[in-house]
Amino acid sequence: MIAGAVDFGGTKLMVGLVDEHGKIIEQRTVPTPKEPTDVADSAASMLREMKGDHTLVGVGSTVPGLADSRAGVLRYAPAHGWRDLPWAQMLSEQTGLPVRIANDVNACALAEQRFGAGRGVADLIWVTVSTGVGAGLVLNGRIFEGAHGIAGEIGHIVVTEHGQTCGCGHKGCVESVASGPAIARRAQLAGLDVADATGVFALARQGNDVARWMVAEAGKYLGRAFAVAFNLFDPEMLVVGGGVARSLDLLLPHIEKTMRGRAISLPEHPPRVVATELGYEAALVGAAALVLPAPYSA
Ligand SMILES: [Zn+2]
Known about the structure:
Helices cover about 35% and strands about 25% of the residues. By secondary structure, it is of the alpha/beta class. The protein has 2 domains: about 1-110 and about 280-290, Nucleotidyltransferase, domain 5, CATH 3.30.420.40; about 120-275, Nucleotidyltransferase, domain 5 (2-Layer Sandwich). Zinc ion binds next to loops.
């Protein structure tokens, strides 16, 4: 069984075919066209070329913003200013196939639950730690969007009194102190000569004390936010994706130390935080999972 998959990102449009095991059979990436109708055209023509003799069960697509997946509508894409775009219908008209959509972070969460670190688990939280910090919730085996598609805004949990002002206007949100750019900025303020968070992690691996302190601080702040997520949803695991996930081994001792005092758990089931098994292509695989049947019912 094969699904068409579209990862409709702000800058890149990734299109592929994915089988029922979550394996990508073929994929292609192009810059995202400026107009939504051109995005639909471009995605549909790439799918037609890839399809060959395969029969597709449908097409799943991520969207770069707030999704109303029941209505198939992209409610709001802040980077583009698009509002109330009937994306499922547009793509369905172009492909002649049923289309389901989800926000990109939610698609990553579903991919990890179906095919990644969370295989066989009903309740999982995915957290992207990258330019921003955002979460996708899979509860009872299904994406949970909330009443308005906003569920999972973990990045705006306040974790310190002293942080920078966040993009949302408040102070001390975890996104403003532990996202990739925030880690880099804090390190620069502390005198480190680094261009980005990757540089901070590299210095920490070399034993630089200031870099190690910065990593400990970021881990502490992430741990505070993750503890809130565990206390609210009691997930089987929290999966970390995004660029910062590559350095999760450095952050994890600090995340776990912080959570020990804050997350309520049973002694035999301490909160589990793991790195993504799917990485860069999680959103594409998750898009396909929207139209592929679940391997089990939660
Ligand atoms: Zn905020």
